[in-house]
Design a protein that fits this description.
The chain has 160 residues and is mainly β. The protein has 1 helix and 11 strands, in the order βββββββββαββ. The radius of gyration is 19 Å and the shape is globular.
Length: 160
């Protein structure tokens, strides 16, 4: 009697993902604490968004950040170049942009590869037009034509 060995099914590679954390300050800490999602429009000069990417292929990568206003309109879409692992690429040429996107280094954390972006508040239409309420940040990896890999919401409120 011969015995056969059954191989386990191949494991699927998890899809890329991103976690977003917010703060009104920049920190070298792996994860800004405490986690904050509400900010005063009049006391916040800049909002720092910390992105933690997981299951992303190595090399220079391009994410698109889409900021959606409380009324549902797109405030802006900005590119974010970041490095996964070792890469000699320092910038990515993007069709339609005048200048190449700089590739930012990432830091390995328990949440994933961290990079950050500053969204100015003071002196922008956000403050000038008192654009308060629930904002949405959508993160697209390599294309704005596909489903976002992460969606995060942050609330801005005007102090009385």
């Amino acid at each position: 009697m011969s015995m056969s060995t059954i191989a386990p099914p191949p494991t699927a590679t998890p899809p890329p993902s991103a976690t977003v954390r917010f703060a009104d300050y920049w920190t070298e800490d792996a994860v800004p604490e405490p986690e904050v999602t509400r900010f005063s429009l009049w006391e916040t000069t800049d909002l720092v968004l910390y992105f933690y990417f997981s299951n992303v292929a190595e090399g220079a990568r391009l994410a698109w950040l889409e900021y959606v206003t409380p009324s549902g309109g797109v405030y802006q879409t900005t590119p974010l170049g970041f490095a996964v692992g070792e890469t000699d690429v320092s910038e990515i040429a993007v069709e339609g942009l005048w200048t190449p996107v700089q590739v930012q280094p990432t830091t390995e954390t328990a949440l994933g590869l961290r990079t950050d972006v500053v969204l100015p508040i003071a002196g922008t239409p956000i403050a000038a037009y008192e654009m308060t309420g629930a904002w949405t940040v959508r993160v697209y990896l390599d294309s704005t034509e596909t489903e976002p890999i992460a969606v995060a919401t942050v609330d801005f409120y005007v102090d009385e």
